[in-house]
Specification:
Blueprint lengths: L2 E4 L4 E13 L3 H12 L6 E5 L37 H7 L3 H5 L8 H13 L5 E3 L1 E8 L10 E7 L5 E11 L4 E2 L3 H4 L7 E3 L3 H11 L4 E6 L3 H13 L3 E6 L12 H4 L4 H8 L3 H10 L10 H17 L8 E4 L2 E6 L9 E5 L5 E3 L6 E4 L3 E2 L2 H5 L32 E4 L4 H4 L14
Length: 434
Amino acid sequence: MPTAITSGRSVIEDAHIYDLVCVGFGPASLAIAVAIHDQAISARVLYLERQREFRWHGGMLLPDTKMQISFLKDLATLRNPRSHFTFLNYLHSKDRLVAFTNLSTFLPLREEYNDYLTWCASHFEDDVRYGQETLEITPGHATSRPVQSWEILSRDVVTDQRSTVQARNIVIAVGGKPRMPPTLSEASLHPPIIHSSAYSTTIPKMLAQKRSACHAAIVGGGQSAAEIFNDLQSRFEKVSVTLYTGDSALRPSDDSPFVNEIFDPHRVDEFYDLPEHAQKDTLYRNRATNYGVVRPELLDRLYELMYHQRLHEPDESKWQHKIMPRTAVVGYDQPAEGRARLKLKNTLDGSISLSETAFDWIIVATGYVRDAHMTMLEASKDLLETGKYDVGRDYKVRYRKDAVADGCGIWLQGCCQDSHGVGVIKHPSILSLH
């Protein structure tokens, strides 16, 4: 591939102008790659991915955790059931189709679904540059209007070498950034405060090095918090775990058939056409499908574990594992000997107290922020139609018509909930049809 070095900037410039560059190579961009392949579209396409290899939610690939969405909502089936890239064909290629059928389930292990996605991604290795973090996207030939192409600046996560590529069209699908509560985000590394997205790649290794009993706090009341709470007590006997949630209880997710229809593809059209106040109301009503909730079978499992402790010790304060409702974490004290006590707020009366336990680790399961596109696109902000990163029904960023040429544009994936509904965040539901 022809390249040139720009003096003084140490930036490698790719001489090609791509028809499409996808920033991020997770499920959304992978679904695009599959669709392009299935439809035999002739185009010059490149995928830029920050991770050094394909890995889907690597920090939360916990033993025995299952998907929350049917495998039929894979990268291809709803669009083309005959595609090479269906989950069923993956099973067939791995000689596990009959065995999987005997499980009588639509919900594969998360570990297996990651392997399915990795298998799909392996077909496109020649088109992917791993280890490339995209820094900014600027109009090509910045002084000319309308914009005919875009320039993408990225850096190698190992060497820090900068490089640029040009594309007529760009899809930004980088997923979410870990959301850290402001009261915990500035904490020192002793004790470590870790987001749930890094749990399985950090905590088990740390626990393996611990010879004595230790204490872990979990902040959050959703599926990730509950899974980590279950995993720690199930696999690591020497750790004591306390889960803090500001809600009055851990609440069940709702994936009943009628409610699940909100993820049907045609519902995106309905939601997009609603007035803004109705969109906000609908999002609020649908929170129980995806936010701060836990699958009922896991709640049953956790309650059984709590009951087993009650059977042997009536005094809850002496339990090894605890769930503390109506308790928000609002800070921490100065660490001592590698541990820290948490500042806790009673969400009923507002009183502040300090945790009795000093924790070795604090695991924060408070979700993600989906605004990475705003930083990447800062250089083209003055071209926006409304001054905000509004998108059309097709997810295309709405630039002024005189500012960007036809056949040139930027699309957003995974961050359009306000305009397209909760289904676009719960990606697998309509991923193959995006």
